[in-house]
Amino acid sequence: MEYLSRIPQMRQFSAKACQDGTRLGLVPTMGALHEGHLSLVRRARKECDLVVVSIFVNSAQFGPQEDFRKYPRNVDQDLKILRDLRVTAVYVPDADDMYPLGFNTWIEPGAIATQFEGASRPNHFRGIDTVILKLFNQVRPQVAYFGRKDFQQQVIIRRMVRDLDLDVEIITCPIVREKDGLALSSRNVYLTGEDRCAARVLSRSLWRAEELVENGERDTEKIVEEVRKVFAAEPRTALDYAKIADLETLEPVSLLRSNVVALVAAYIGSTRLIDNTILHVS
Ligand code: AMP
Fold first, then answer.
1. How far apart are CA 56 and CA 225, in angstroms?
2. Parallel, antiparallel, or unpaired: how do β-strands 143-147 and 89-91 relate?
3. Of all protein residues, whose CA lies closest to atom 18 belonging to ligand 1?
4. Is 34 among the residues known to form the active site?
């Protein structure tokens, strides 16, 4: 496995690798790797000739009061895991290279990024689109892998790719969960004891939504109301939002006629977690 940390090094690697039409897959991550990340890497390994995993804790997507400083970092362990998975290269760019002094050019994703996560985390998606575009320019992948765990993120990245004519295929992979339903997240390490137990409320609330739809409920207001009730019964949690939206536009939906996504975000103690599920309307 090659270890790359400088932009010219990265460019040289992909220029050499891709001369003969090789399919290069990129898996962008912020490290502290877990099985969710690894599911993306395994999928990339299956579908690509070469796989580059990037590890970069992107300051630009964190708000001033958020956990950028304490975000879990464990590059040595990550490298070992990625070596075992036989990825071709790991790219760990330097913060000063990524955002050099005077950096002042941003990708603004527009209205789609001002709701849900964007409403609670102003500039979050501006930071994400900007770093992802930079990574695409540095790594030059044919295909990039994202998790459905961050549903709004992959919608916004797909939109950027379309709007800016980027020549990258976007693949979205299913959510990997703990046995009890909690979606894997690097932030789960913040959860201890009773909070870890309470965190099950996110997936439980989504199962309730699925159950209602299976039983024929089509009124999204009623479904959201039931989701709220699940959270209300768990005192250690504070619901940030529960929404049902169109899969591609993220527009609100009032009556279910086709598949939609149900999204929740909540604080468990001081830890903010997100989750979502597709509601299948047969
Ligand atoms: P992060 O390191 O949190 O930026 O995540 C890197 C990528 O892994 C993103 O595309 C996430 O959506 C994806 N990811 C994170 N958690 C999971 C999970 N539980 N299942 C599937 N993909 C995930």
1. 38
2. unpaired
3. 36
4. no
